[in-house]
Amino acid sequence: MSTKKPGGHPARAAQAEDAREARRAKAAAMRRRELAKERSRRVLLISIAVVVVLAVVAVVAVVIDRSREDDVALAAQAVPPSAGAQGAGYVLPGTPVDGAPTLDVWLDYQCPVCKRFETAAGDAVVELASSGQARVVVHTLTFLDGNLGNDSSQRAAEAAAAADAQGRFVEFNAATFAAQPDEGVGYTVADLRAIARTAGVPDLDAWQEAVEGHAYRDYVNSVADTMQDNGVTGTPTVTVTPAGGQKQEIPTEQLLGADPAGALQAAVAAATTTP
User: Fold this and answer.
1) Mean pLDDT, range 189-196, rounded to an integer
2) What is the CA radius of gyration of the chain?
C-alpha cells in the first residue's frame, strides 16, 4: 500500500501556478496592446474626420467667396434700364415723332450751374421728351470729384442709376438738384436716401443696397469715359442732333439766359427734319 498523500508534489504545483500567472500576464499584455491599437485607430479615424471636415469647410468657404466675387462682378456690370448699355445716357420717357432730333444733356450733380439750368429748364427738357419733339438723353458725369476732392458726384450718379432701376430717374434727377448742397460739401448716402424718398423710389432698402454695393459703379464710370470723345469739357452741356445730321451745341449763354426753356424749344424746332 502506498504511503503518499493526495495533492501532488509541492514544486510541481508551484510551477503550474507560475505558468498560469504567465499566461494571465501574457493575455493581459495582449489586451493592453489591442486596446492601444484600438485607441490609435480611433485617434486616426478622428484625425481623418477632422481633416475631412476642415477640407469641406475650406471648399465651402472658397465657393462662398467666389460666389460673392461673382455677385460683385455681376453687380458692377449692371446697367440701368433707361440707358440700356454701358456708356449710354438715360433716354427719357417718350416716343419721338418722325424727324425729331436727339437732345443730349450732360450734367454733374455737384455742379451749381447745372442746378441753375435744371431749375430754369428741367421741366422743358422732360416735356420735349414726353411730347415726342425730341429724343432726350441725359448723361451723368463725375469730373467735379477730382476738382473738389471728394466722391460725391460718383455717389450721386450711382444713386440716380439705382433710382432708374425702379423707374424713378426723372424724379430723382430733379430732386437731387433741388437738394444740392453747397459746392464741395457733397451728398452722403443718408442725403441721397432722403432724395430717393422724395422722388418716390418704391423700395428704398433695395435702392440703398445697390448704392452701398456700387451696383452701378462701372456704368457711371463708362459714361464718364465718353466725355472726351463727345467733346464735352464742362457742365451743363446740351447738344442737338438732327436725324442724320450734324450735332450742334446750344450756347451756354442761352442755357442760362432769360429764357432757357425757349432756347431749347427753338433749337429742337430748328433741328427737326420733315419726313
Assistant:
1) 98
2) 40
Q: Looking at the DSSP assignment, which residues form a beta bridge with residue 136?
A: 103
**Is 60 exceeded by the pLDDT of residue 124?**
yes
User: 50-59 — which CB contacts under 8 Å span 24+ positions?
Assistant: none
Backbone conformation region of residue 4, classed left if phi is above 0, alpha if psi is from -120 to 50, else beta: beta
Closest to 124 (Cα-Cα) out of 271, 260, 267: 260
| N-to-C CA span, the chain | 152
Mapping DSSP onto H, E and C, the string for 161-197 reads HHHHCCCCHHHHHHHHHHCCCCCCCCCCHHHHHHHHH
Give CA–CA dist 262/233, Å, rounded. 24
Q: In whole angstroms, how far apart are CA 62 and each of 48, 56, 59, 73?
A: 21, 10, 5, 16
- pLDDT tens track for 157-166: 999 999 999 9
- Among residues 173, 177, 148, 155, the alpha carbon closest in space to that of 163 is found at 173
Helix (H, G, I), strand (E, B) or coil at 249: strand
Tell me the per-residue pLDDT of 22-59, one tens digit each, with 9 for 90 and over: 677 666 666 777 666 666 666 666 666 655 555 554 54
Does residue 18 have a pLDDT over 90? no
Give the helix/strand (H/E) hosting 138. Answer: strand 135-141
CA dist 66 and 62 (Å) reads: 6
Q: Quote the pTM value.
A: 0.73
Report the C-alpha gap between 132 and 100 in whole angstroms. Answer: 7
Strand-strand pairing, 102-108 and 135-141: parallel
Partners of residue 102 on adjacent β-strands? 135, 241
Q: By the 8 A CB rule, do 180 and 112 touch? A: yes
Quick check: 161 and 219 in contact, CB under 8 A?
A: yes
